[in-house]
Each structure stands twice: as structure tokens, then as C-alpha cells.
Specification:
alpha+beta, four-stranded mixed sheet, 16 strands, about 25% helix
Length: about 350
């Protein structure tokens, strides 16, 4: 329970179905940012968010615990976040948090408390199919809120002990239910920032976290011509146009980031379109990897549309993804997720 509307309604729906519910808030990051139920939910770690979760739990007459996972969060999310940027990649901390904290540390705590399931307010659905005796992860009913993309790492054991009460609802319906339940968080705004960077300035965060690691370097063209000076390769991501601090007479975009040479390659927008990627650490949710090429839909980031693609399995738990249409700004460090209709087939980290 983050103190937001989604997890609050999820808890209420489960209790109404007859489950014995325990509210659990994860203390992940120390921040001075505070909010109220009327204001933006800038951080699930803010004291006001913990109080909002506690207040909802009291209304539901369920126990509420706060678990201190700051050490695990530092190790599995913060360190990952900084390491990826300093390797020239663009991380996805929400996926790392889901994988290691919500379905790692929190599930361990749930078992210690004797619980059978962990439930969250994600907009996705889980179905058990008798024909193959497997659990399948499906998109949420609300296409605008579907969060199946960030859950591609789940395995059969986790899916069997995971509940998604909001998967069949729209966000509008969730807010209406929250009002019906009398929750003060019914109109609470959603966070748009990284939870441990309330000002959303990840460059400042990296400079403070790893002093001296970000140094100025060269902007270069695809032909190797030096174009100017940048602030440090970790300050840029594939496809970036704004904030380059250089005028070259035409719109220029980041097409490559090289942590070894500390060079950032700039080019026209056509340079950031591609049809091919490889991905590592691929997780197939409901079956073994294919033995040969298959056709699926795939998306290269949470906000990207799905696009037809051919998937070619590679050794070492990797895949090659060949899109029919060019994709804009395929970014190493982000995840590619494969779909068959409404079902998540697999996902992995873009190399």
C-alpha cells in the first residue's frame, strides 16, 4: 500500500471478497518531500504517503505494517540505476523495483507473515489455463493504464501467488470506487517522477551519488567529426533532442552514447530509427523459448505502441527482434516486451 488510490482500492476489493488482508507499505528511500492527500503523490516514501496508507488500513479495519527495505532498494535499484547510466545505458528503475522488491523482498515478508498472496494495484490480469496448467499474464482492461509491460519478469511461481484486483477496471472506475469507499486519497494525483528523485533531475542525482564520474566530453557526428562539448555521456539518452546545448543549424538527436570514449554521437532524426535489436535476460512467462523464429507484437518502452516483429532465439537466453517498421530510438537498458494479443509472452533487456 503506497498511500495512493490504486493500492487502496485493491485492498478494499480483496477484503470485500472475503480475503484476510494485511496492508504493507515499503519504506524504500529517505526523502524530505512531503505531500497531502490533495496534492501530488511525488514519492511513495514520503511520510504523508505512509500516513495515507495507514489511514486507509484503519478504515478497512486491517493491520498495517511498514517494512524497511532501504538497504535492498539501495542495492537492487539505486546501484543498478547508477551503474546502468555510467555504462551508457538507460535503466528502468520501476521494473527493477517490481522484480527485486515487490516480488522479492515483499513476497519473502508475506511468507513470514503466513500470507498466501501478494496483491498490488497494477493494471494487468492473471489467468490460469487448465489446458496447459500455466498462469498467463494479460494486459489490463484499461488500455491507457495497462501496466503489463513492467511485469514481464514474473515467473510461474510468482504468478501463482500474485493478485491483481484492478486488472478488470478502468482508472475512472477505480477512482469512483475510492470515493464510494470514502477514501480521502480518491483524487490523489499520480506521481510522474522517479520515486527517489522527486525533482526528476537524474543528472544531479548521478553527480551527487557518484562524484567525479560525469565529465565533459565531445559531441561527434556519425562520420567522427567533432561538433562541440557535452556535459558528460551519462547525461544523454538515445533519441534526445532537448538540452543538448549546441546549435548546428538543423535539429540534431543523440544517436549513440559511448562511455569508453566519453563521446556522444549526434545526427538527424533519421539516424535514430532502426528495425533491429538484441535483448538479454529474456524471461518467457508461460512456456519454454521457441526453437525457431516466431512472429509477435513487440514494444520497446512502456509508452511505445506495439509493432509487428519477428523473434529469433539466440544462445544465452537472448533474442533478436526484427521489426517490420522502423522504431524510433531503440535504447539499450530499456526493455522489449513481446505480446500475442492481450498476453505477455516474454520480455528482456535491450542490448
Amino acid at each position: 500500500m503506497s498511500g495512493g488510490v490504486d493500492s487502496s482500492v485493491a485492498a478494499a476489493l480483496l477484503k470485500n471478497k472475503g480475503y484476510e488482508v494485511i496492508g504493507a507499505t515499503m519504506k524504500l528511500w529517505q526523502t524530505s518531500t512531503e505531500t497531502t492527500v490533495e496534492g501530488p503523490e511525488r514519492s511513495c516514501c514520503a511520510l504523508s504517503s505512509v500516513e495515507d496508507a495507514r489511514r486507509v488500513s484503519q478504515m478497512l479495519d486491517i493491520p498495517h505494517y511498514v517494512f524497511n527495505f532501504q538497504a535492498a532498494f539501495e542495492r537492487d535499484v539505486i546501484n543498478y540505476f547508477t551503474t546502468e547510466y555510467l555504462a551508457g545505458r538507460t535503466p528502468n528503475p520501476c521494473i527493477a523495483c517490481n522484480q527485486h522488491l515487490k516480488f522479492g523482498a515483499l513476497w519473502q515478508k508475506a511468507r513470514e507473515l503466513g500470507a498466501d498472496f501478494v496483491a498490488t494495484g497494477h493494471y494487468a490480469q492473471i489467468e490460469y489455463h487448465e489446458n496447459d496448467h500455466k498462469y498467463h499474464l494479460l494486459k489490463g482492461l484499461d488500455n491507457k493504464k495497462d501496466q503489463s509491460y513492467v511485469l514481464y519478469h514474473l515467473d510461474q511461481m510468482t504468478l501463482a501467488h500474485f493478485l491483481l484486483p484492478l486488472g478488470g477496471l478502468t482508472k475512472t472506475e477505480t477512482r469512483k470506487l475510492a470515493k464510494d469507499f470514502g477514501f480521502l486519497v480518491a483524487n490523489k494525483a499520480e506521481s510522474q517522477e522517479i520515486c527517489f528523485i522527486p525533482d526528476n533531475d537524474y543528472r544531479r542525482f548521478l553527480r551527487e551519488k557518484v562524484p567525479g564520474a560525469i565529465q565533459p566530453g565531445e559531441y561527434v557526428s556519425t562520420s567522427g567529426e567533432i561538433l562541440g562539448t557535452h556535459k558528460g555521456f551519462a547525461c544523454y539518452t538515445i533519441g534526445q533532442r532537448r538540452g543538448l546545448g549546441i546549435a548546428l543549424g538543423q535539429p540534431m538527436f543523440v544517436s549513440a552514447v559511448d562511455p569508453v570514449s566519453n563521446q556522444v554521437t549526434l545526427g538527424p532524426e533519421t539516424d535514430i530509427f532502426s528495425t533491429l535489436l538484441t535483448a538479454r535476460e529474456v524471461n518467457w512467462l508461460a512456456g519454454p523459448p521457441p526453437t525457431g523464429p516466431i512472429g509477435t507484437m513487440a514494444k520497446i518502452r512502456y509508452s511505445a505502441p506495439e509493432s509487428p516483429a519477428q523473434i529469433i532465439p539466440l544462445p544465452g537466453n537472448r533474442i533478436e527482434v526484427l521489426f517490420r517498421q522502423k522504431q524510433r530510438a531503440i535504447t539499450p537498458g530499456q526493455s522489449v516486451v513481446l505480446y500475442a494479443g492481450n498476453e505477455v509472452l516474454a520480455g528482456g533487456i535491450i542490448e
